[in-house]
Amino acid sequence: MGIVNENHGAHFGHGAVERLEGTLEAVEGIGRDLNAVTSAMADRARTLARKSEARAAAGESERSLEGIPFAIKDVIDVAGFPTTMGSKVSSGPDPSTTAPVVDRLERAGALPVAKTNCQEYSYGILGDESAFGRVVNPIGPALCTAGSSSGSAALVAAGVVPLAVGTDTAGSVRIPAVCQGIIGFKPTFGVVPTEGVFPLSPSFDTVGLFARDISLLTSAFAAISGNGRGDSGGKAVQAETPTVDTSLLTTADESADGARAWTEQHLGDVRTTSAKSEELVEIIERLVGIYDIVRRYEAYVLHSQFADEQGEAYQPGVWAKIMSGQTITEGEYREQVAALEELRAEAVAIFDDVDYIVTPAIEGEAIRWDEIGQESAAKFMRYAMPFNVLGWPAATLPIGPVHDGSWGSGSSIGGSKAGAESEADPDSRPESVQIVGRPHSDEMLLEFVAGF
After folding, report:
1. Cα–Cα distance between 129 and 389 in angstroms, integer?
2. Which residue of the set 64, 122, 149, 172 is catalytic?
3. Would residue 345 count as lying in a domain?
4. Domain range for residue 55?
5. Is 148 a catalytic residue?
6. Which residues does the annotated region (Disordered) include (predicted)?
7. How far apart are CA 142 and CA 179, in angstroms?
């Protein structure tokens, strides 16, 4: 297996509070060193851990995420803690209620230990602008973390927590996962509730997950999607021999050679096709303009309430992105929303004879901070953003030398035995592939990914 697949229920039962203390120490130590933590949540986590111990003592059955520590991107509300958005801008009082996605994880037994640093208001894929400064990539401080869910990815990559929550509007879970060498998952649009999550562009926003253990991520998705499942009524059945389209992988440049080699090695038992190349290219060409207008308009409308009094408090690049939407008319926006609905209805026909699509995770390779240029953001989003626009579920998984979960060391996941020790090349770049499924086949997609 290329992905860590552990017994994630190991924290259940007596001694849960004692075991939690090690995680809380790491949050305050490694987490702060990585600049990944905005709020530690020790008291809340301890209270819930004591409840886990009481359940165990009473002989109650173990819940799916019993005793699992998790981190929360700081655009998601937790009662009693500020939601900073990675910003100096004040967007209202501290929340008095907790977002449903957090509540569902807690009800499944998980323990919230930290809120995490992020790109200001989630507006940026590079992770380069936060009022708290950049998050440090656990693989190496010179490497870009990507964004916007930078801190959530870093705490998982460094082994501080096994699970973290982020948001993904154009790749903001999947791309930090790529750059920090872990698994990132964006569910089908609308499957996971976004109440209590500050939006960037509601037409595309999704709540997503980070982990190194695919079975843990699958359990967490079942919890946050509600009713223990996230697919279309649980009726989808995995094809005995799935058909995978590799069109976007086949036509990528030489930076995708590793992803192509991985595909040849791991997809030998499935049918592959490049027959959808023209259709996918046409769909992507259509959706780029839709995304640009809809996202800029919605972001500007959301932030216009703060513009007059707090504009100067924003990070410069984020403010420029926000203000770029002020010239878009409501008529132009409504036209593109209609085009979005039409495209989503038409594009799903891709899956009439294809089960999954495999693509590069990003265009080119993961970059260093000092290599960021004008095209960097577009390259990061090239293969991620289309599936936000379409609303399809997508997962990125590491395939080369990546972090082993201990800050300062490396191992290989996806090309050799998971967890095996290896020497980390200081110049190596993390590499991933992206696997996309039909809408509302989230659990089936995760099952497929688990096979690698």
Report:
1. 24
2. 172
3. no
4. 1-238+366-452
5. yes
6. 408-439
7. 11
